[in-house]
UniProtKB/TrEMBL annotation:
Its main location: membrane. The SWAP complex consists of NPM1, NCL, PARP1 and SWAP70. One of its GO terms (molecular function) is DNA binding. Phosphatidylinositol 3,4,5-trisphosphate-dependent guanine nucleotide exchange factor (GEF) which, independently of RAS, transduces signals from tyrosine kinase receptors to RAC. It also mediates signaling of membrane ruffling. Regulates the actin cytoskeleton as an effector or adapter protein in response to agonist stimulated phosphatidylinositol (3,4)-bisphosphate production and cell protrusion. Residues 283-504 form a coiled coil. It comes from Notiomystis cincta. Pfam families: EF-hand_SWAP70_N, PH. Residues 177-273 form the PH domain. This is Switch-associated protein 70. It is found in: Cell membrane; Cell projection, Lamellipodium; Cytoplasm; Nucleus. InterPro entries: EF-hand_SWAP70_N, PH-like_dom_sf, PH_domain, PH_SWAP70. GO terms for cellular component: cytoplasm; lamellipodium; nucleus; plasma membrane. Keywords: Cell membrane, Cell projection, Coiled coil, Cytoplasm, DNA-binding, Membrane, Nucleus, Phosphoprotein. The keyword Translocase does not apply.
């Protein structure tokens, strides 16, 4: 059952045949830890790919060990909170068995919980606890840490709900890698409406849910080094807006106030910068630095202890030598009572020698104290140097980013120069081609110019002929007009004569109507009335005009 549950939680296929084969010859009763470990390592742990839910795995391990080891005394925290403290212990404990959490990590965890509760940190109280702890052991086990937090020793005045919320916040940060979370408004991509969502920021994504119980997940914003975040001005009645730009989508979000907006922009920008630099989350990087610093201090402390032991051994040897000399003196005094004067003199010399030795020992002890003080000063200088190196490392990272950008700009300029050179070569070839075409065109233009000159001469001659014909036509038109005026005058005279004769007849004869002979030819009608010439005369004139026109052309 244990093997099957482990395979289920770790997403590893369970092989019952291998289990039966491994324990086939084991007829000695229940399997011990040492007997089960080879099977666990070979058939389960070696097949783990890392794509499993670590919280569920921790919960299964908690189920196996909590009932046996958890204290029976009443605690101020629930079993769920105790489980979260146990998981945090596994994250902060030292990498050696049996697992313990050292006082520095205990202080770090209690500070995080106290800050999450909104209370002040009692450094003096913890210093007393730390002194009492260092006198008895190196650190606490998981169950002792649960008892410490559950006893309320460092959370006096806080209710169970506040402590539970603080533990849950620290658990989300350290174990679930939750860098920031809270309610904000998000603009939809399809309907373009604004909805309130619970946002959870992690090292490589931002998940948003309907509420903070995290049951109904609505989507993820995948973060990478190409993402960026920037503030937006207020619009459409929404304030405190900012924009998250990714490769495929852009997200508009509205915070509750300017402080929350700035906090979210800073947190997301920090996460993107860590992704670009390939750095782990801040709490993991800080844990690694604290561990390296402890190892460094431990190595220096062991070196000091070794030197102190060497000095102590040398001092003990000196004390033994002095004890031997004292015994020799006592024996000499007992043997040579008669040589009292000589013994006293010898004793005075020995006392002087002892004084010199004591002075020498004092000087040695003083030098050791100076060395210890010097080591402490060197330790402070080393810590200062570590901080300076961290600052220098950040500056080097910024310089590296600038150098990368400069190289990219140089490559872009080089490509642009190459493209411009190719375009210049193509234009030069095209200009040479145009030059050749222009020369050919000039040659062709000279020939065409000569031909056009000939045509112009011919046209001028034709124009002169046409001008002469036009003058001839003008003369004929004038003659025709003169003839027309003469005919018009004749018609007016005839009309007047006819009118006077008709008046006379009407006056003398009354209603008598004269019957006049009509013309046998049809009359031509013009714009001024009956024509003064016949149709035959008109045809004769048209033939004459056509003949003159043909002659002029």
């Amino acid at each position: 059952v244990l093997s099957h549950n482990l395979c289920t939680v770790l997403n590893v296929p369970h092989d019952p045949v291998a289990l039966e084969e491994h324990f086939r010859d084991d007829d000695e009763g229940p399997v011990s830890n040492q007997g089960y470990m080879p099977y666990l390592n070979k058939f389960i742990l070696e097949k783990v790919q890392g794509n499993f839910d670590k919280v569920e795995f921790n919960r299964m391990c908690w189920t196996l060990c909590a009932k046996k080891n958890l204290s029976k005394s009443p605690l101020l925290i629930s079993d769920e909170d105790a489980f979260k403290v146990w998981v945090i212990f596994n994250f902060l404990s030292e990498d050696k068995y049996p697992l313990i959490i050292v006082p520095e990590e205990i202080e770090y965890l209690l500070k995080k919980i106290t800050e999450a509760m909104g209370a002040g940190w009692q450094q003096e109280q913890f210093d007393h606890y730390k002194i009492a702890l260092n006198t008895s052991r190196e650190g606490l086990s998981a169950w002792e840490l649960i008892d410490l937090i559950g006893s309320g020793q460092f959370s006096k005045g806080m209710d169970r709900q506040t402590v539970s919320m603080a533990i849950n916040e620290v658990f989300n940060e350290l174990i679930l890698d939750v860098l920031k979370q809270g309610y904000m408004m998000k603009k939809g991509h399809k309907r373009k409406n604004w909805m309130e969502r619970w946002f959870v920021l992690k090292p490589n994504s931002i998940s948003y849910y309907v509420s903070e119980d995290l049951k109904d997940k609505k989507g993820d914003i995948i973060l990478d080094g190409n993402c960026c975040v920037e503030g937006l001005p207020d619009k459409d009645g929404k304030k405190c807006l900012f924009l998250i730009k990714c490769l495929d989508k852009t997200f508009e979000i509205s915070a509750s106030d300017k402080k929350k907006k700035q906090e979210w922009i800073q947190a997301i920008q920090t996460t993107v910068n860590l992704l670009r630099a390939g750095s782990p989350p801040p709490h993991k990087e800080a844990r690694q630095k604290r561990k390296e610093l402890r190892q460094k201090l431990l190595a220096e402390q062991e070196e000091l202890e070794r030197q102190m032991k060497e000095l102590q051994a040398a001092n003990e040897n000196k004390q033994k030598e002095l004890e031997t000399v004292r015994k020799q003196l006592e024996a000499a005094a007992a043997r040579a009572a008669e040589e009292e004067k000589k013994r006293l003199q010898t004793q005075v010399e020995l006392q002087d020698r002892f004084s010199l030795e004591l002075e020498r020992e004092k000087m040695v002890r003083q030098k050791m104290e100076e060395q210890v003080a010097q080591k402490s000063s060197e330790l402070e200088q080393y810590l200062q140097r570590v901080r300076e190196l961290e600052e220098m490392y950040k500056q080097l990272q910024e310089a590296l980013e600038d150098e990368k950008q400069a190289r990219q700009d140089e490559e872009t300029v080089r490509k642009l120069q190459a493209r411009l050179l190719e375009e210049e070569t193509a234009k030069r070839a095209e200009l040479e081609k145009w030059h050749l075409q222009q020369q050919q065109t000039i040659q062709m233009t000279e020939a065409e110019k000569q031909e056009l000159e000939n045509q112009r001469m011919m046209k001028e001659q034709a124009l002169q002929v046409a001008m002469q014909q036009l003058k001839q036509l003008e003369l004929e038109r004038k003659e025709a007009l003169e003839q027309y005026e003469e005919v018009k005058k004749k018609l007016e005279t005839a009309a007047n004569n006819t009118k006077s004769w008709k008046d006379k007849v009407a006056h003398h004869e009354g209603l008598i109507r004269l019957i006049e002979p009509g013309s046998k030819n049809p009359h031509l009608i013009t714009n001024w009335g009956p024509a003064a010439f016949t149709e035959a005369e008109l045809e004769e004139r048209q033939r004459s005009w056509k003949g003159k026109k043909a002659t002029s052309e």
